[in-house]
Structures are given as C-alpha cells and as structure tokens.
Amino acid sequence: MIRLLSSLKQTGMSLNDIAEFLKDGCILEHAEGNLDELKEMLEKRIHLLSNHLMDMPMKREKTDRSDSIHSLSEDPNDES
C-alpha cells in the first residue's frame, strides 16, 4: 500500500486524489465479494487516473515555465 501511495505521489497526483483513490482500500480484498461493488471501485479509480493523466501535460508545462523563470532570474556571475 505504501509503495502504491508513493508511486501515485511521484506522478504528481494531489493528496486529495490519492486519498480518494485509496479510500476503498485494497481491491484484492473485494475481489471475491460483490462484483457490482468491485466494478464501481474500479471505475472510480479509472476515472481518477484518467483525469490525472489528462492534467499531466498542463502541470508539466507549468513546471517547465516555472523552471525557465527561475533560471532567468539566477545571477550568471554567482559562483556559489
């Protein structure tokens, strides 16, 4: 579970989305239970991941822009 949480955070997923993603617990624990409930859980997770995937290019562009501004503001004569 910790590895999954860490992986989701490394992708840039917000903590709120991670909490929502993990809210239902381990899918394997539900695998032998109600199939409709399992399907609902999987659909919710797919929806969260799909939304995150669509947001990633915009977040990347924002990060790149921020990095460019930061590098422009650095003093080229500063040797620290």
TrEMBL record:
Residues 57-80 are annotated as: Disordered. One of its GO terms (molecular function) is DNA binding. Residues 1-24 form the HTH merR-type domain. GO terms for biological process: regulation of DNA-templated transcription. Residues 57-68 have a biased composition (Basic and acidic residues). This is HTH merR-type domain-containing protein.
